[in-house]
Amino acid sequence: MSQLLLSYSKILEIVGDLVKVYVPEPDSNTTGNIGFGDLAIIENPLDPAQLPALAQVIEMDRDRISLQVFSGTKGLSTQASIRFLGHSMQVAFSTNILGRAFSGVGVPIDGGPDLKEEPHIEIDGPTVNPARRVLASRMIRTDVPMIDIFNTLVESQKIPIFSVAGEPYNQLLAQIGAHADADIIVFGGIGLIFDDYYFFKKAFEDAGVLAKTVMYVHLGSDPTVEALLVPDMALAVAERFAVDEGKRVLVLLTDMTAYADALKEVGVAMEHVPSNRGYIGDLYSQLARRYEKACDYKGAGSVTILSVTTMPGDDVTHPVPDNTGYITEGQFYLHDGVLDPFGSLSRLKQHVIGKVTREDHGQIMNTMVRFYAAAQDAQQKQAMSFELTEYDLRLLRFGDLFRKRFMDISVTIPLEKALDLCWKTLAECFEAEELLMKQDLVDKYFPVGSQRS
Questions:
Q1: Alpha-carbon distance 147 to 281, whole Å?
Q2: Are 200 and 170 in contact (CB under 8 A)?
Q3: Structure-derived torsion over alpha carbons of residues 374, 380, 381, 384, reported in degrees to the nearest 10
Q4: What are the structural domains of the chain?
Q5: Taking every annotated instance into account, which residue ranges of this chain make up the domain ATPase F1/V1/A1 complex alpha/beta subunit N-terminal (predicted)?
Q6: How far is CA 24 from the centre of its chain?
Q7: The pLDDT of residue 80
């Protein structure tokens, strides 16, 4: 910038991690208006040894500006001076960030070299022009049978994993990241404990994908405001890789409920009137602004978003999953350690099933789910001590095989082999004429000479 911004020292109030400062109307000696989201440096003249604190503008009310201090306001005096930087939060962007891990403010946490000299981009850009979007038509393989076969993940899709605390959703997310056929993996962790961060990093390293992965991690011990920056950092970098480099980018976020809780905490500190269950009134808009970054760009790459959304009390009407469901294109429902074929839904799967996948994909998907639903009915009959027919017993066997071979999230298998395993499982439990499938598919794929017990 051609002029230096003036420092302001009239701090009106310090509440929690918020600082409210009086800023007079701009005149000829200033560089112009301060913008929402702009960064500022806070220096404490009473303690020169104290490092300057970084803050961000989060509310503007005429000549009163509220700043969220990233490192907290402990030890901060009302005599401190505030210098606005004239730009919003930025993050390093180049191929050198691949294989690296950063904090919620973009500082390396992996012991690697600093990237201050690398090009930086602002993280709060608008969503892409709809005219540059193309219809989703390509599949992202994950090698997770319950996703690839029954609820296919499609490029440019935005879809959450609905779950509850204690379920292995981080294990599932890491497994997807380790096997997904994406060019770039961008991971955003919100409110993680250190063990979770280490687990993800080791999982990516062991799978050999760390070199194409960049991680942004907010630990539970980090300032709350950093949690709000992680999704924006991850998505800004993903968007640049897709647009500038033409890469197919998969963004993994966990946990978006922790993100919403951070929004609520900041809203309480700012004395905003709460909405449903104490969450901010614009929760839908805040979530949608992030999820809408998912896009398949015309003439470039794509951004696909897969996030974890925990449901407190397993309540799908909770404000976070409820709002998420209106924004996203389906959900993966994880409970009791497995992906539920009935609670899960990918609304874009029809764009790829049978079109970019094998011809029998659609038929095998429907048939497997139909028999599993019948197996659930047979299991209820068994639990109620009704007499079971020979067909019921075969349904029960099919249900056991289905859960073991497909629903277990630790199973990883390529799509084509998974489809073949579906045919094998059906042949072990039923006759060909019982499948009620297209005869030409049965003739082509039903195992010849298979033994049914």
A1: 33
A2: yes
A3: 180
A4: 7-88 (2.40.10.170), 91-350 (3.40.50.12240), 361-445 (no CATH)
A5: 50-86
A6: 41
A7: 85
β-sheet bridge partners, residue 330? 346
Look up residue 21 and give its amino acid.
Answer: V
For 80-118, write each residue's pLDDT tens digit: 888 888 888 889 999 999 999 999 888 999 988 888 888
Single-letter code of the amino acid located at 337: G
Q: Which residue carries 């301060």 as its tokens? A: 34
Supply the pLDDT for residue 86: 82
SS3 label, residue 32: coil
Q: Are 10 and 79 in contact (CB under 8 A)?
A: no
Q: What residues contact residue 205 under an 8 Å CB cut-off, 6+ apart?
A: none
d(CA 192, CA 218): 6
Query: Residue 31: which pLDDT band, with cuts at 50, 70 and 90?
Result: very low
Place of tokens 């209106």: 326
Distances (CA, A) of 124 to 216, 245, 328, 351: 16, 20, 20, 31
Token duo for residue 74: 């402990």
What is the residue-averaged pLDDT of the chain?
Answer: 89
What does the pLDDT look like over 373-432, one tens digit per residue? 999 999 999 999 899 999 999 999 999 999 999 999 999 999 999 999 999 999 999 999
Report the distance separating Cα 218 and Cα 230, nearest Å: 7
Give the confidence band of 8 by pLDDT, cuts at 50, 70, 90: confident
For the stretch 415-451, what's the b/e string if a residue is b when 16 or more beta carbons lie within 10 angstroms of its beta carbon? beebbbbbbebbbbbbeeeebebeeebbeebbeeeee
Can you tell me whether residue 161 is helix, strand or coil? strand
Angle at CA of residue 310, ends 309 and 316, nearest 5°: 90
DSSP string, 328-392: SSEEEEEETTEE-TTT-EETTGGGTTTTTS-TTHHHHHHHHHHHHHHHHHHHHHHHTTPPPPHHH
Let me know: does 198 contact 109? Beta carbons within 8 Å. Answer: no
pLDDT (0 to 100) of residue 253: 97
For the segment 420-449, the average pLDDT, to the nearest whole number, is: 92
